[in-house]
Design brief:
The complex is a heterotrimer of chains A (about 375), B (about 290) and C (about 350). Chain A is about 45% helix and about 20% strand. Chain A has about 375 residues and is an alpha/beta fold. In chain A, the strands form three sheets. In chain A, strands 7-6-8-9-10-13-14 form a seven-stranded mixed sheet, with helices on both faces. Chain A has a five-stranded parallel sheet with strand order 2-1-3-4-5, sandwiched between helices. In chain A, strands 11-12 form a two-stranded antiparallel ribbon. Chain A is globular. About 5% of the residues of chain A have low confidence. Helix content of chain B is about 75%, strand content about 0%. In chain B, strands 1-2 form a two-stranded antiparallel ribbon. Chain B is globular, with a radius of gyration of 19 Å. The mean pLDDT of chain B is about 90. In chain C, strands 1-2 form a two-stranded antiparallel sheet. Chain C has two domains: about 190 residues, no CATH class; about 100 residues, no CATH class. Classes of the chains: A alpha/beta (about 375), B mainly alpha (about 290), C mainly alpha (about 350). Chains in contact: A-B, A-C, B-C.
Amino acid sequence: MRTKRKIISIVVIWVFVMGILSVAHAEYRFGILNATTGAYAGLGVHKKKGIMLAIEKINKEGGINGEEVVGIYEDFESDPSKAISLAKKLIIQDKVIAILDCGSTAASLAVKKVTEKRKIVQVNTTPRSALAVDEPWPAYYFQTVPDNSVDAQKIGDFVKSLGVKRVSIIHDSNQYGTSGAIFQNDYFKKAGIEVVLSDKYQKTDRDLTSILIKARDRKTEAVVVWGTIPTPAVIAKNIRQLGMKVHYIGSSGLGSPKLIQLAKEAAEGIVFTSALAYGKMLPNEKPLFDAYKKKYDKFPNYFTALGWDCVMITVEAIKRVGGSKDTTKIRNSLESLSEFYGVIGKYKMNPTDHNGLDTSALHLVKIIGGKWVVLD
Amino acid sequence: MSFSNVLQILVGGLTMGSVYALVALGFHIIYNGTRAINFAQGEQVVLGGVIALSCMSTLKLPLPLAFFLTLIIGGVIGYFYERLAIRPNLETSELSIIISSIAVAIILQNSIAVIWEKDPMYFPPFTKGGSLEFMGAYMLRQSLWIMGITAASVVALDRFFHQTLLGKAILASANNSEAARLVGISPFRMVSCSFILSGCLGAIAGSIVAPLTFAGGPLGTMIAIKGFAGGILGGLSSSRGVVLGALLLGILEFFIATFISEGYRDAIAIFILLIALMLKPEGLFAQE
Amino acid sequence: MRGIKELAMNRNTYSKVIDFMLFLIIFLFPLFDSNEYHLDVAVIIGIYCIINIGLNLLLGNTGQISIGQAAFFGIGAYCSAVLTTNLHLTFWLSICFAAILTATLGISVGLTSLKLRGHYLAMATLGFGIIASTVYVEWTELTGGTSGFLNIPAPSIFGFQLDNEFKYYYLVWAFVLLVFISTQHLINSRIGRALQAIHEREITCGAMGINPAKYKLKIFTLSAAYAGIAGALFAGFQNYISPESFSVYSSIIFLCMIVIGGLGSVWGSIIGTVILSIFPEFIRAVASSEFISPQIKAILNEHSYHLIAYGFFVLIIIVFLPEGIVGGVKRLEAKAYEWLHSKQIVIE
């Protein structure tokens, strides 16, 4: 009778053997490694929307040389080690020619080894880690988002122009916030601006008065926030609650209409860097705004734009090599991709820079009267 | 550190502590009824927030009505939760109840993300207006609501358990289900009542903190862990204990975040809790 | 009487043969299915099996709950990563150190929580998990913090690099076999019987000269060491580790795996791990299969339903088989035996 138990185990093991092995090849397959659950779900869903809209648009315009672009979506649940497995799945089982998005900085680092080994292009939507910035770009590693150092410079220049002498840096404890804060500290040190407080918060924190009273005691004149929605909205509310009169400057992670929705009046006067120029839409941003408006009847946010661009530059690179499916050719084409205007900005890739965006891609946006006003 | 700052920390700590207290009370009630941990408690709080929001924005109900409707829905969800997921396991082991509650937590968390949205949503405060100043500390009006409603719930629950027949029956059944059965109390029904009560508590907690924490978003696990820790710190077996423990945990967290380190906040708070557990394994405020 | 004894003996050898056959299938599996992704999943399953066999020993045989098993897993992983990457020790030494370190920590956590039981023990282990995950994030110099630990070398054996899924599969499942055999021996030995007695009647055991605390501590240490070994294997396989893999959520999932598989059974831990790890693959296969229309596929793509399905799957198993899969099969077995027995009586 014990056999029944064993039979079940055998059956379970055989489930392995069954799986879809063969794959038809009359299309361009992109693997989309995206986090729609877990800590990065809030950003992942927006990136995914951008990716889906971009693929839809490409296919509506006839695909690449008449062949369809197919996105294969995998959710890595915000766990980089799951991302490694799923990257293998996309490459081995689904035979994709590029992996897009990669969800978080840690996940893109984790996936790097797989894509390098199997020579598949990886186009990230997250900035590189501060630890990796001094190293040369890995051969198959590209990104659609300006490096944190670029953002830090833009923020720093603005803070300097305000004539502020004492600033506080508050950042997300994740990789994005931590490495942003490192660059920001460096910038202020060089510019002779005193950083009176540099502290971090966790994504689930909903009351940050404990940090802000320290900043208040140290007579800070400006608060620089590195993080993503929703916690920056909490900081805005807390600043208002404490009646602090400070400049509030945010990184491009704040670039979401959600900021105003969540912080309401407290969002008034916040300045942040944004790749999207709301209100003063640039010509290259129009296709995304139109497509998004048509489908969701809302404005896209920064993360949607990142998702959109990672499809667009990959497709452009493939088109420039005549629709080749050879991954090395795609890589070389991406590396020499220049003079291409994405929604984020103008990409000028070269062997020493797999991103090619500079401060000109970023704008300063101020919230005035519940609206985004572009300052430059 | 000035006096006004200490006061400010106390305000923040007590506000968050009140939320933990409501969650901890939920744990306490379930613990009394089944001796199991209800991992879905945190998600029930998040669910309370989004339901209250939908009542207000979609059904256009005024706040008090939305609040009571949420309370009722919370209770109904608690009832079905017990009938479908807990009842079949009641007579096997606590462990299978725990696993059931984990499964329900996963289902609730992801269903909320699919039905509403993944981003947190704005929830208007109960009363409009800026923060109140008291001796250099600034307090949100919502904090008063949170503390007030928590206090009222604690008193009401205490009354319920010690002065009403149903409340006494639940306590009796939890204490000795054989004896309770002998005097005509159905233990199953009492467990059902516990889950309804904890569902209501979750809904209350969810709708009063939503103006502070926003509605929805990935907060459930954090709230559940903090509430559970607060309850354990005070001693899960007594209702007064869990409330005091949770308040203490809230204040502790804010002091650590200000004076030691925000990054190590949770670790240090938990470490203090573990030391307290070693010294007093039944919780700090447990009654013998 | 002789008949029954013989039957029991037969049954014992019979089950050993079945164990052997199953492991034979496991070891032949890569020869039939060389899809590297399947092997990748199988390697991760093997690593989880090692943890869960330890956890099941702890919970199923001594009744001590632990919601901090992922912490030991993580400590093992980080320990091995630091030793192999920064100090250039061999993988084999690092795995020993990982086991020793986690065992030591296991003793200290076990000692402090000996007085605790039930919820209070759950909280203590959960707290340990939270503290550990904070340390991974905060101790940036050593762990790399949130960006994770990069470039962990793949292990080698006599100069033979274990750098692909195929080779690693054998390494991991050899470890599973080792842990399986030693645990089976432990359960069938004097210690195992003492544990069973402690689990059922702790106070009586104390009176009879069995020191429950001593045994409980031993098992706590052993299960921590198993998790540490699994961690070292994990670090060597992924070449990259980050705090997210060792979160409280992972600990909770490990708990689900063993309860669903069946408490107190070594095969139960393996079955539970395999089923809960394969289920997402199953959902993935269904969602991308030809039977589903493109419209439904678009809806499935838009949202993430897979975790909801996962939750329902766990719920359904636990509601219908509260004692886990092995427990359910055993109950079926007993029923069938009863039925056979009644038939026999009628025949007689």
